[in-house]
TrEMBL record:
InterPro entries: Ald1_epimerase_CS (IPR018052), Ald_epimerase_bac (IPR013458), Aldose_1-epimerase (IPR015443), Aldose_1/G6P_1-epimerase (IPR008183), Gal_mutarotase_sf_dom (IPR011013), Galactose_mutarotase-like (IPR047215), GH-type_carb-bd (IPR014718). It is an enzyme of class 5 (isomerase). This is Aldose 1-epimerase. It comes from Photobacterium iliopiscarium. Belongs to the aldose epimerase family. Its EC number is 5.1.3.3. The gene is galM. SUPFAM superfamilies: Galactose mutarotase-like. It comes from the Bacteria.
Length: 362
């Protein structure tokens, strides 16, 4: 059955299905492969992006480099708390005190980090079993029904996440959702990348990064926005020109309290159509570049400040800063900030939630 797949993918299919999932059944995996030899492995638990092997030319030789941090057993997947590669929801990032009001109704959500609701609550979408189907050799679709009241969120929410691998070495993730009652929705993928190799032992801070954003969102010590956008001009958050991630490392209190970058950037309006890169990241040795394209209004840069102890694929553990995440999303705590432009995360029964994010490797 798996003989047509690359050897690393076959090994992952085998190792990830030894342990049983929380429902007593094994996980299901799909690997997408394009004509260039790029391969992406996905899992139904958490609609998770497990592996991303990209062809890289070094000394005129083509190598296949694993650039996505991940695990090789389901037990390790449940053990790690970094949301490695998972689809997170209903609401990615934080909602202050797990509270929001909508149409005069007050809602209390599941609390799971420092008194706040993070990535959907105690039992978010990242540990659910999604319905998975392979559409063709380069596309897979995941669907999930989140019932009214799930983690405190209103409305029966039907979600579909579609992964498509193109011949341009681009993985696009399309998110769609519908509800039967007004609710809030903010879906993203929590992949962590290291373009030098996920298990190379090298940190991500020597990568060069560009983010098309003029403003970022300062937060308190628990990651809750203080409310006002702040210009990146003359701050360590100015990535409008490509620079080393660690060029202005821990240079101010905003970074220091988070032990690195864990902040949302407000994307410029002209890069919210998924036609121009909202962020570009280049490996320290210039061997590989990744562009991020999206229709979302914001992107969260997280430099893996608390990754230490998370299991890796090779029987060891990741260290802090082993990888970075670029999570496309609505701004954290948006339901409590109606004054923020272009950050309306409310979904109503007459509407369709539809967003796209692409990761392009070159």
């Amino acid at each position: 059955m798996l003989t047509h797949l690359p050897q690393h993918a076959i090994a992952l299919h085998q190792s990830m299905t030894v342990d049983m999932a929380a429902d007593g059944l094994p996980a299901k995996l799909i690997t997408l492969v394009n004509q260039q030899g790029m391969s992406v492995t996905l899992m139904d638990i958490g609609a998770t992006w497990l592996s991303c092997c990209v062809p890289v030319t070094v000394d005129h030789q083509t190598q296949y480099r694993e650039v996505l941090l991940g695990v090789s057993t389901l037990n390790d997947f449940y053990q790690q708390q970094a949301y490695l590669g998972a689809t997170v929801g209903r609401y990615a990032n934080r909602i202050a005190a797990g509270k929001f009001s909508l149409d005069g109704e007050d809602y209390q959500l599941s609390i799971n980090q420092k008194g706040n609701c993070l990535h959907g609550g105690e039992s978010g979408f990242n540990h659910r079993r999604w319905q998975m189907q392979q559409v063709n050799a380069t596309e897979a679709q995941f669907s999930l029904l989140s019932a009214d009241g799930d983690m405190g969120f209103p409305g029966n929410l039907q979600v579909i996440v579609t992964y498509t691998l193109t011949e341009n070495n681009e993985l696009s993730i399309r998110y769609s959702a519908e509800t039967d009652k007004p609710t809030v929705v903010n879906l993203t993928n929590h992949g962590y990348f290291n373009l030098l190799g996920a298990d190379s032992g090298k940190d991500c801070l020597s990568h060069q990064l560009m983010i098309n954003a003029d403003h970022y969102l300062p937060t308190d010590s628990s990651g809750i926005p203080l409310g006002e956008f702040k210009t990146v001009e003359a701050t360590s958050f100015d990535f409008r020109e490509q620079k080393l991630i660690n060029q202005d490392w821990l240079a101010d209190s905003d970074q220091q309290q988070a032990q690195g970058y864990d902040h949302s950037f407000v994307l410029r309006s002209d890069v919210r159509r998924a036609t121009t890169a909202c962020a570009t990241i280049v490996a320290a040795d210039y061997s590989l570049t990744m562009d991020v394209l999206t229709t979302k209004p914001a992107i969260q840069l997280y430099t893996g400040n608390f990754l230490a102890g998370s299991p890796n694929r090779i029987g060891g553990e990741y260290k802090n800063y082993s990888g970075f995440a670029l999570e496309t999303q609505f701004l954290p705590d948006s339901p409590n900030h109606p004054e923020w432009p272009d950050n309306d995360s409310i979904l109503r029964p007459s509407e369709h939630y539809h967003h796209l994010t692409c990761y392009r490797f070159r």
